[in-house]
Amino acid sequence: AHLARIGAVDEKVNAFLHVDREGALAQAREVDAKRERGEKLGPLAGVPLALKDLFTTEGVPTTAGSKILEGWIPPYDATVTKRLKDADVVILGKTNMDEFAMGSSTESSAYGPTANPWDLTRIPGGSGGGSAASLAAHMAPLAIGTDTGGSIRQPAAVTGTVGVKPTYGGVSRYGMIAFSSSLDQGGPCARTVLDAALLHSVIAGHDERDSTSIAQPVPDIVAAARNGSASGMRVGVVKEFRGEGYQDGVMQRFDESVELLRELGAEIVELSCPSFTKALAAYYLIAPSECSSNLARFDAMRYGLRSGDDGSHSAEEVTALTREEGFGDEVKRRVMLGTYALSSGYYDAYYGSAQKVRTLITRDFEKAFEQVDVVVSPTSPTTAWPIGERVDDPMAMYLADVCTLPSNLAGNSAMSIPCGLAPEDGLPVGLQIVAPAMADDRLYRVGAALE
Ligand code: GLN
User: Where is the Amidase domain (predicted)?
Assistant: First the structure.
C-alpha cells in the first residue's frame, strides 16, 4: 500500500531519491515467512520506513543528496540501518535532503527540491525535507532523519509531523555520512509521539563503532510516551526565543501551547539564556569548519564521481575537477568558510571564539535545567516559505534555525510536535521541547501530554 502511495504522489512531492521496491517487498516477505515459521519477530516487524539518504545501506545507492556520490553503492550498513533491519522494519527507500545535510529547505539537493505536501509551492524544511514530506503525504508511517542544527525538528514543524533529536551520542553515527561530527545526530520522525518513541527505542543505544556513543542505558522513552503527563513539570519559557523575525501566528500557537501546559498542571517559569542570541554565529562557524575537514575525503579517488579522468590531467586536477562538478554552491560556500575559519592566524578569532560561545550556551542550559525540567519554544520562527524565496539569501535561510541550534551546540535532547496551524496562512506550526542530555524521556512525557 505504501509503495502504491509513493507511486501515486511522489512525482509531485519528490520525497524519495531512491525507492527500493524489490528490497522492500523482499523484506516484507521475509517477515511473513518468519511469522509462518513461528520465529520471534522484531519489535517493528513489517512497518515501512523512509530512510534519509545520509545513512549507508548495503547494496542500495546512497548519495547524501550530492552529485559527488552519484552511482556509489555502499558495501556496508550504517548501525541505524542494521538496527532497523534487526527490528524487521521494511525500508521503502532513501529520502531527499539538502546536499550533505546543509540547508533548511531541501532546495540544495542535487536532485531537485522536495515539495511540502501541505502546499506544493512551499518548502518542506530541511535538510530532512524528504523524510518529513514522506510522513506528511502518508508515503511512510515512520522515517529517519539527522539533526546537526535542526534538520529533523524544523522539517517536522513545517510539515505538521513529529521529529526528535536524541541526546548527542544517543544514536550511533557509524555509517551516517558526516557533516559536522560534534553536532550530527540521527533520530526518529513519525506522525505521533508514541510512534517516534517506538522507533527511537529501536535505533538508540551504545555502539562501540562510534567513539562518541554513550555507554549508558537509554531512558524508557516508550513508557514515557504511553504515560504522557505535564502535571508537576517545571516548564521554562526562554525570553530570547521571541521578537523580531517571529511570525505572529507562530507565536500565537506557541503561547496557546504554554497555556495548555499550565492547564495540564505544569508550572511555567520565565527564563533568560543570553548566549542563545550568539548561537547562530557560533554554529555557522563550527559546522562549516568541521564540514571542511569531513568533506576532504571526497577526493575523486575513493567514492562516486570522477571527472577529467581521461589521461590528460594530474591526480590533483582530477580531484579539483570532480569537486567543481560534484559539489553544489552551498557545500562549496561552507568548505571555503570553514577552511578560512580554521586557517592559521584566524583560528583563535573565529573557530576558537565560536567554541567559547558554545560553552556559554551549554552553561545557559545547565543553569536553566537547575530551575526547570524542560524548556519550550517555537521550533521554527516561521511556517513553510515559498520554494525559491530564500535560495539567493543564505542569511535568511540560516535564520530558520535560531531556535533549534542551541540544543545541538549543547548536545541535549529536543523534540518538535505539531501545535496547530498559523491563522494567517493555514500552515503547520511546531512546538519545540528541550530536555537535558540523557533525559530524552521527558520530551516524550510532555509531548504525549500535549498530543
Ligand atoms: N539548517 C542547518 C544547516 O544548514 C542545519 C542542518 C542540519 O541539521 N543538518 O546547517
Answer: 1-443
**Cα 404 to averaged position of ligand 1 atoms, centre (Å):** 9
When computed from its CA atoms, the radius of gyration of the chain, rounded to whole angstroms, is 21
Give the model confidence (pLDDT) of 159-181 as tens digits: 999 999 999 999 999 999 999 99
35: Cβ contacts below 8 Å, ≥ 6 apart: 41, 45
The model's pLDDT over 405-421, given as tens digits with 9 standing for 90+, comes to 999 999 999 999 999 99
- In the chain the domains, ranked by start, together with CATH numbers, are 2-279+353-450 (3.90.1300.10)
Which residue among 100, 180, 401 has the greatest number of ligand 1 atoms within 8 angstroms of its CB, and so is best to mutate? 401
Stated as kind and residue range, the H or E segment containing 74 is: none
pTM of the model: 0.98
Grid cell for residue 402: 535560531
Q: State the complex-level ipTM.
A: 0.98
- 101 pocket-lining for ligand 1 (C-beta < 6 Å): yes
Chain centroid to Cα 94, Å, comes to 14
